[in-house]
Design brief:
The complex is a heterotrimer of chains A (267), B (593) and C (238).
Chain A (H helix, E strand, L loop, with lengths): L1 H20 L13 H32 L15 H32 L8 E8 L2 E6 L30 H4 L2 E3 L1 E5 L3 E8 L4 E5 L4 E5 L5 E6 L4 E6 L12 E7 L1 H14 L1
Parallel strand pairs in A: 1-5, 4-10
Antiparallel strand pairs in A: 1-2, 2-3, 5-8, 6-7, 9-10
Helix pairs in contact in A: 1-2, 2-3
Chain B lengths: L17 H6 L4 H31 L8 H4 L11 H36 L8 H20 L31 H30 L12 H32 L11 E2 L2 E2 L7 H35 L6 H14 L15 H13 L1 H15 L8 H23 L2 H7 L3 H31 L5 H28 L15 H34 L39 E2 L1 E2 L5 E2 L8 E2 L3
Antiparallel strand pairs in B: 1-2, 3-5, 4-6
Chain C lengths: L2 H20 L6 E11 L13 H4 L12 E3 L3 E3 L2 E6 L11 E6 L2 E3 L2 E5 L4 E5 L5 E5 L9 E3 L6 E3 L5 E6 L7 E7 L4 E3 L5 E7 L2 E9 L3 E9 L4 E10 L3
Parallel strand pairs in C: 1-18, 5-8, 7-13
Antiparallel strand pairs in C: 1-15, 2-3, 4-14, 4-16, 5-6, 8-11, 9-10, 9-12, 12-13, 16-17
The chains are: A alpha+beta (267), B mainly alpha (593), C mainly beta (238).
Amino acid sequence: MGKIFAVVLVIVALVSAYPIIVNKYAMPEDISTHGHMIDDQLHETMWEAGLSFIGAQLVLAFFVWSFTNRKVGSPLKSFPGGARVMVIAAIVLVGTEILALGVVGQKAWATVYFTAPKPDALQIQSQAGQFAFYFRYPGADGKFGAIHPDKIDEGNQNYFGLDPANEVEARDDIVSGELVIPANREVQLLMHAKDVGHSFYVRELRIQQDFVPGLDLAVHFTATKVGKYEIVCTQLCGLGHYNMKAYLNVMSPEDYDKWMKAQEAAQ
Amino acid sequence: MQETSAQQGHVHAPPEGFIRKHVFSLDHKVIGKQYYALALVAVFVGMFLSWLMRIHLVWPNAKIPGLELLSKVGAPGGVMTPEYYLSLLTMHGTLMVFFVLTNAPFAAFGNYFLPIQIGAEDMAFPRFNMMSFWTTFLAFVVLIMAFFIPDGPPIAGWTSYSPLMAVGKDAGPGMQWGASLWGISIAIFCIASLLGSLNFIATTLDLRAKGMTLMRMPISTWAWFITSCISLLAFAVLLPACILLILDRHAGTSFFIPAGLVISDKLQPHSGGSPLLWQHLFWFFGHPEVYIAILPAMGIVSHILINSMRKPLLSAKVVIYSMMSIGFLSYMVWGHHMFVSGMNPMSSLAFSFPTLTITIPATIMTLIWLGSLYGADIQINSASLFALGFISMFVSGGVSGFFLAQPSIDIYLHGTYFVVGHFHMVMGVAALFGVFAGTYFWFPKMSGRMMNDSWGKLHFLITFIGTYCIFMPFHYLGLVGNVRRYSSFVDDFMGPDLMNLHRFITISALITGAAQFIFLFNLIYSRFKGAMAPDNPWNATTLEWSMPSPPPWNNFGDRHPIVYHDPYQYGVKGSKGDFVMQDSPEQAIASGD
Amino acid sequence: MTIKHVVLTGMAMLATSALALAGPRPSGGTITGKVTYEGTPAKMKPIDMSKEPSCAKMYTTPPLAQTVETGAGNTLADVVVYVSAGAPDDAAPTSAAVFTQKGCRYIPHTLAFQVNQEIKIQNEDQTSHNIHPLPKLNREWNKSQPPGSPPITEKYDKAEFIPVKCNIHPWMHGNFAVLKNSHYSVSNESGAFSIANLPPGKYTISAWQESYGEQTQDVTITGSETKTVTFTFKAKPY
């Protein structure tokens, strides 16, 4: 049975690693300017974690294979070097790995969170609520109308609680269920939660950020490839969580201007 | 044997009557078995819930026969609604984390064997001990009640993020009384765990037999001791957090709810609270909780491995120090659950570093286990197989932690099935492997009968392969970006490839779950019909094997054991074989190589 | 209202129903009319259903929000016109009022029915909806309805106008008008309504529109006449 276990273990380890090695379940193509850093980091970690995984499983299998059902009277042996070798190996190997990944990996994080968006970044407000995202553009005046939670009226499509009757800035605000952005221009997304916690996740953009009620956050990114991508919620927000999504529509700058003109005309 | 023990004053009369013997018993062994039974009920309920969820995920419109009887609203016509999926998800997580992973490896085995392994007659506070169990039981009843109220169980997941959890019924079905029951149940559970941990700590420090120095305690006892220290500090934070949550829900306070929230068209009458406060409090408990589940399993597995290898670990001390440093570091890493939660991005870096650092003691332990196997004489049986399986599982679940510990990678993987795969392997299944190993190993002592080893091996093989079939694919799904906690997949990217993978997972889960009935049958059958167990069937060295199987009510009887050795004198020449027991005065002679 | 009045009205109703049984000739008076507005109503915005492709593809041009539904000649549709005073409470009919979710909208947008009358809610979409009415007087409930699951049946025991929403599709808003008697009508696309079979008596007729609120008029019916009533709401652009 010890040998059966050893064989099973080898098979399990190799079969587990196979889809990763042949990249059967690939990450969706990256369409952001910062995403390649995250991808590189992930691939590097995959190498190190993968080798540790395969190595440890194979050693375990080999030792179980070798040291079960031994002949009566076979002498017990001790691993050369004993615990000291193990401790040193762990500290050196894992320690350098930590330093390498920890230091290199901060670059991607810093790009997303520690660099300020360019001054000409396009500001769009995103509001997450049970169970849809809505996006707001400031319109021709470049100013967002204030949010009044008591004025929210979803049946009337007033998702943000705008008060156009009394506030001029709110009248030309463009509200869309789709996040339409121009390619190759930085976008700063101002994140506002209407009710409970939500999250903004676009796989292709390599961006994930929670919406926190009462705490307005912002993320910024640049999309490089025209196309339509899914925005999904990754923070459990209630019964419709699974169906809380929207689309990111990356357009060429010309198409974006056309779209924006049409929206402004419709106000 | 000398009669000079430090624990003279601690004598109580034998219990009489069914109630005193088996229900409201003060005997730590009965209480340990009660914890085990409660965990057994909880694990099968939890597993059943996971079956329902897995079936719904891959056949969303399937009519599940009988489900309508459980909840007419949650499954009209047998088709599960999205909110009922989330109810099951919440209950699965809560049952498994609190009532299985905390109860079985720590409270159940700890209660039974910690006093015995240190040579004590009982716990330091037997009445507290009884109270801990019955308080835990009350928490369980309160939680299960949520299934039977019209509103149903809550839908906020076991992490119960606020404001979703804190605002009440506007947040959705189950969020009125179901959510309150959850909060009350967990608060009660915290009280029980606090009582239990105090008792473990006092027992370990005060009731050790003569000669049982701290470093002569078995590794399993060390693990339970370290765990009870972690548990004392962790549950002491969750308890007030739950109380604040209940106040927010019922007393109109706003600890976790900010102003201006409009939920289901209603402006919420709250202001000034912080949703992040809940996350900090919860994860300050939540991350140490992972180690509350896994450290006892590490202890149990080390204890069993040494016995199966017939030689000591390369260094037991290093394993103990590693467990201590894991326990210590576990309080500095909770923020890695919150990298993208909106807390200051600078703190993510501060949390990332200790999280990566915790890999070092974990790796040291793994290398010590592996290195110790070299040159051993491994005895293969159900217990040792599960102990070896634990190492494999711990490695598999551990390496994926390396991804999630890095904030930049977490941007992509957070909230995906990668996380599900990671914590199920390293915290869920690995800890359960420890429990299985412990069960096969100690069952002869606890019941006086042997478990069937062939069934045990079959159980192991199916469970081991099945676990990989279930949880490895979760990692692949996460790498593609499949989001967790969805009741069905309406994403565009959910192509046939991924759906097939989900189906494979569901079928594996059904088979692996079914294999657990082999274990259950073995457990029940062997309890009554198993072969009679000798006092020391595994030729083991620690004190639990120096007493009859099953032990009498007062453990060592009138005998006060005296400890002469380190716990693991294997691979030596003793009078009984290749081992010398801890309480045997004979000198161990190194066996000639 | 005096007891005598109630008794008399009751007897009149019995007589009416007896007559109704006797032959097809309608008895009692009828109130018909139109609901209109003056001023500029808010511009109804097209609904962005991009989040639910299975619904979005059912429309060639996006449908408009329905909080104010105007027709040619300044008429208002989906206004509930009902007898708010002067008529006794009726027993609920045995037939169920049907509320359908189709194309991620409610059909009808405003459903009028009686206290204790059964309502049947059905989902004809390929997606889950949740039906979340927000009553102030009645018991609140919130139930999901996955595609293919059986209709939900419910009742309300207090008269009330109840907004209905779907949390999963925030644009879906409708209304339940829970009424005490059977004398009601919901204005159609051309703003017309008609309440028939009213026994002689003095009535208060109310018209309720979800954005503009309620208006009342007194009407006296003396025989089998038809009276015409017009309700005019003041519309606001915002």
